[in-house]
Amino acid sequence: MSKIMPPAHPFDTSFLRDAEEDDKLKEECGVFGVIGVGDAANFVALGLHALQHRGQEAGGIVSHHPEHGFQSARRFGYVRDNFTSQKVMETLPGPLAIGHVRYSTTGSKGQTAIRDVQPFFGEFAMGGAAIAHNGNITNANALRRELIERGSIFQSSSDSECIIHLMARSLQRTIPERMEDALRRVEGAFSVVAMTRTKLIGVRDPLGVRPLVLGKVGEGWALSSETCALDIIGGEFIREIEPGEMVVITANGVESHFPFRPQKPRFCIFEHVYFSRPDSILGGRSVYETREAIGRELAKESPVEADLVCPVPDSGTPAAIGYSLASGIPYAMGIIRNQYMGRTFIEPTEQIRNMGVRLKLNVNRALIKGKRVILVDDSVVRGTTSRKIKEMILDAGAKEVHFRIASPPTAWPCFYGVDTPQREKLLAATMSEEEMRDHLQVDSLKFISLDGLYRAVGEADGRNSVQPQYCDACFSGEYPVEPADQIESGFEMKAAE
Ligand code: SF4
User: Fold this and answer.
1) Does domain 291-460 have CATH number 3.40.50.2020?
2) Would you call 310 a catalytic residue per the annotation?
3) pLDDT tens digits for 176-186?
4) Nearest protein CA to atom 2 of ligand 1, as residue
5) What pLDDT shows up at residue 89?
6) How far is the CA of 275 from the centre of ligand 1 (A)?
7) Atom 4 of ligand 1, nearest CA residue
8) pTM of the model as a whole
9) Could you give the percent of the chain with pLDDT greater than 70?
10) Which CATH class is domain 21-266?
11) 116 C-alpha vs ligand 1 centroid, how far in Å?
12) Residue 33: is its pLDDT beyond 50?
């Protein structure tokens, strides 16, 4: 007799990841913190809701109240399903709170355990502290081994927990000093939001790989992965936290330190292309405008005669608009996304599973029939989705399909807080542009050049003109921080030219 198996957990949407999302690079995590407002956790819940695109598997909030001490709630699933009820929010009182949304990049990938959900909390001799980390520690394996040998007992499989154990071993007097000490041992990418009983702390790694911004909210202050989360709480964007900067925020205001050896910043250029929300500001520029500029560059670099420019929604939309504006070819919503897919089929049948991409995307047939269509997408990772979308467009009667991609070929994995397939699974790691075109069976396929991408983010003379540089390792294979753990596990760096 066959047994009916329950889903892995109530939010198991892994079949959807198989269908479409496994073919995207996935950011990682979002962090948010507030000090100096009543019921700070409510602000944090709203901020995390705005950052949900940075992680959908799980979320957590820690708050502190002078009488009730530290409180925490960690849950699987969306913020809107977990941190909106009065019952939960009443358990998180106080004027100081931090939170985290997670897509697992380390730890139990794709099947987050509740023990891996941040913020993490540590009780030290001088008081408690909670931390939320966005990024990826590239020497976490070595640190973990060393810490375990010296007696640390790890509670999770997350790289971020190393920070708490390093803090516990530091001999410094205060928690911010211990955090500085701990983070000096850490390699890789980190944007950290942390809290003590009285302080909100924000730190960005010396390369500034992942974003972190400071905002003002009423009489209080906020730290956030992106500016869009400040907007939702009625906050004011003050400035980005500088690469290598630590800010310690109390009732008296914001103190700034630079505890690390200064290095040339290497901000993640893919944040501009795909990860950040289009209504956020990065490096003083609107993400939407940058994406539109990418589309314009792409139209200049790779023109083609066609009847329509259509985005692969939603992330391809601004670049498609830019392509249309620069080429004069009409823009049209040739593919429509079903926004509600993620909650519809909690226990999908085999038949539903096989529908794959069609569950989320549908072709606007009346528009497409008989047309030569340019499809603009943000990236090609494995190529499985691109191929299915092409089939859908041809089924709808398109005469020609031309792909234009708003990023250079993704040929290398990211080790700085983004979930990427192993290198051999990346289409661009094993095929030339022409081979990818033949593999996808499209009439043409063109990616924006690395120089074109740099021009679109505001560096007029392209990649080599830039001081400071960006991280573009997933395109160039030039890693700004040696990924020690991955090399130990057999990853081969690009040979020096
Ligand atoms: S490797 Fe790519 S995704 Fe990762 S930080 Fe660098 S640019 Fe961003």
Assistant:
1) yes
2) no
3) 999 999 999 99
4) 474
5) 96
6) 10
7) 414
8) 0.91
9) 88
10) alpha beta
11) 23
12) yes
